[in-house]
Design a protein that fits this description.
Blueprint (H helix, E strand, L loop, with lengths): L1 E2 L2 E2 L44 H11 L1 H10 L13 H16 L21 H10 L2 H15 L10 E3 L5 E3 H13 L3 H14 L6 H18 L2 H10 L4 H14 L2 H16 L5 E7 L7 H9 L7 E8 L9 H16 L4 E7 L17 E6 L17 H12 L3 E7 L8 H22 L5 H20 L12 H10 L2 E4 L3 H14 L4 E6 L2 E6 L2 E11 L6
Parallel strand pairs: 5-6, 5-8, 6-7, 8-9
Antiparallel strand pairs: 1-2, 3-4, 9-13, 10-13, 11-12, 12-13
């Protein structure tokens, strides 16, 4: 996979990471330093510390999630239920319709990009850049079309390149960037011309770069037409069954270790912390279908002296309609059945409401229980921040967690730097991020696989549409890089807890034995980083309330 002019080598301990000094983008998500062979976390597999029995047990636990997904697929009437992964967008659409019916003149503001004659205010640097490029794009578009008709190759940039039958080379990433630049300068004619050229070379059925270009072109086209929210809402609310999405998710889990890495680490930390506990209360922000917990339930059932009483408070966004908590409650019923099978005492409470309305009393915390707050399903990235609201909901949730005074807060995040109100910067960073994701699936899953195509369309495609075509509070994909979360957590009164060396080594071993060689597990400043070919895509760390804030 090309990445802005340079190729990454596969990550292995002891190797230095290739840095893109000539990149046309600012790449904030590449590992800045690499752990060498002398680091204690690097010796997971090569040292032979772990026994064959431990490895077999880890393998059995890592398949518990897949088996749990299979059991859900066997449920009656599953095909009639809609997917729950994008409920917040569906709720946003329902709220908008509700205001339309009531005729409320003052619904929550949802700003749109201004019309072409009145370009938005940017920084001076962005304004100068826009002036410099203002008359550039029509000439570039004409030049590209001329090259296409003559069948010659005059491309001088590096990146993702695809050959046509006539021998011409088309740089899809450069074309996408030129199209975004034209839109930022409100040069709609040039943007349309470049979009037409991108459409000739992109496809949802091609290789990773062609699929990337296809979905980014969809987002650019919707932004150009001003229909981003409508299209994103239509994609979100269409009839996609839970069964189909779980099948696609099974495929993703089998091909990609990111979910397995986070689950293995989080469950290992919880199991170790709860070794002597009689009652364990897990407060799960973003419980979804509860895929994380079958592995932990099995671990707890094997504890000498018997398992503790397990309480899970499952929190997620409500679904539209008259039963907003239905899917969160279904997750509780499934987990209760699973606990019965392994003789683990279990209690569950479902909370399905806007996270900024949750109160600490809703958790029904018992001072005699061990409290674990868990959030590894990247749902916090959907919370609005200070760029669109006076009250940053991300900070508000973190402060709520601190006031719960948990024994541990396990925080897993999607490591993305495309949460900015400035379109062109957001576009470039998103292009980098999704380039790695599409390349990853292209290297691990066949192109004709229907599950892969569904996952790319239903998950990546919808996210890209929202990131590229929506603005203001309509844009709900708002990830931050792990260093930004570090600052947020510390400001909220949380202090970081060091990583568990033994569990990190276990994660390394699983990834090395069972997944593609270009997946990597690294450590930086108390965060365990998950990456593909040098790009950090996910991260996880553990936190506790700062004593200064408890006084």
């Amino acid at each position: 996979m090309d990445s802005a002019g340079g190729k990454f080598s596969g990550l292995k301990s002891g190797l230095k990471l290739y840095h893109e000094s000539d990149s046309i983008y600012s790449d904030h998500n590449v590992v800045e330093r690499f752990v060498d062979d002398s680091h204690p976390y690097s010796s997971a597999t090569d040292s032979g510390v772990r026994s064959e029995e431990d490895s077999t047990e880890d393998s059995q636990l890592s398949t518990a999630m897949l088996k749990y997904m299979g059991e859900i697929l066997m449920e009656d009437e599953l095909e009639d239920r809609n997917c729950m992964f994008q409920d917040r967008v569906a709720l946003l659409a329902a709220e908008k319709s509700f205001y339309d019916v009531l005729g409320d003149p003052s619904p929550p503001p949802r700003p749109r990009p201004p019309p072409p004659p009145n370009p938005p205010l940017y920084s001076n640097a962005a304004a100068n850049d826009r002036k410099r490029r203002k008359n550039q794009h029509p000439d570039e578009a004409s030049k590209i079309q001329k090259e296409e008709s003559e069948g010659c190759n005059k491309s001088k940039t590096s990146g993702i390149k695809k050959k046509r039958n006539k021998g011409e080379v088309v740089d899809l990433r450069a074309l996408l960037t030129q199209c975004a630049q034209a839109m930022a300068a409100y040069n709609h004619r040039a943007a349309n011309d470049i979009l037409m050229l991108i459409r000739l070379h992109s496809s949802p059925f091609g290789d990773g770069s062609q699929r990337l270009a296809h979905f980014f072109a969809n987002g650019l086209e919707a932004r150009l037409a001003g229909t981003g929210l409508q299209i994103h809402t239509a994609l979100t609310t269409k009839k996609t069954s839970v069964g189909d999405m779980i099948k696609a998710y099974q495929l993703y889990f089998s091909a990609c270790p990111f979910k397995n890495m986070s689950t293995t680490y989080a469950n290992g930390v919880i199991a170790k912390l709860a070794e002597g506990a009689t009652s364990l209360h897990i407060i799960d922000f973003g419980v979804l279908c509860g895929f994380q917990w079958p592995c932990l339930i099995q671990l707890l059932s094997l504890r000498p002296g018997g398992p503790p009483k397990l309480r899970i408070t499952g929190i997620d966004f409500p679904q539209p309609g008259f039963r907003p908590a239905e899917r969160v409650e279904e997750t509780g019923r499934r987990l209760a059945n699973y606990c019965n099978r392994f003789n683990v005492p279990f209690q569950y409470k479902a909370i399905a409401q806007r996270w900024d309305t949750i109160e600490i009393e809703d958790m029904e915390i018992d001072k005699n229980e061990m409290i674990v707050v868990n959030s590894i399903n990247n749902r916090m990235e959907n919370l609005l921040d200070e760029t669109v609201t006076d009250k940053c909901l991300k900070d508000a949730v973190l402060e709520l967690i601190r006031r719960m005074n948990p024994d541990i807060f396990i925080h897993g995040i999607l490591n993305g730097n495309f949460n900015t109100p400035f379109f062109l910067t957001r576009f470039r960073e998103a292009l980098f991020h999704f380039d790695a994701l599409f390349d990853m699936l292209d290297a691990t899953v066949g192109r004709e696989n229907e599950g892969r195509m569904m996952f790319e369309r239903e998950m990546y495609g919808r996210d890209i549409m929202n990131i590229i075509a929506c603005e203001g509070s309509e844009r709900i994909e708002r990830p931050d890089i792990y260093k930004q979360w570090q600052g947020r957590n510390e400001r909220a009164g949380l202090r970081q807890v060091g990583l568990e060396e033994e569990i990190v080594m276990k994660v390394r071993s699983i990834v090395k034995k069972e997944y593609h060689k270009d997946f990597a597990v690294e450590v930086d400043g108390g965060w365990m980083l998950h990456g593909w070919k040098g790009r950090v895509l996910y991260a996880i760390s553990c936190w506790k309330p700062s004593h200064l804030h408890l006084l």
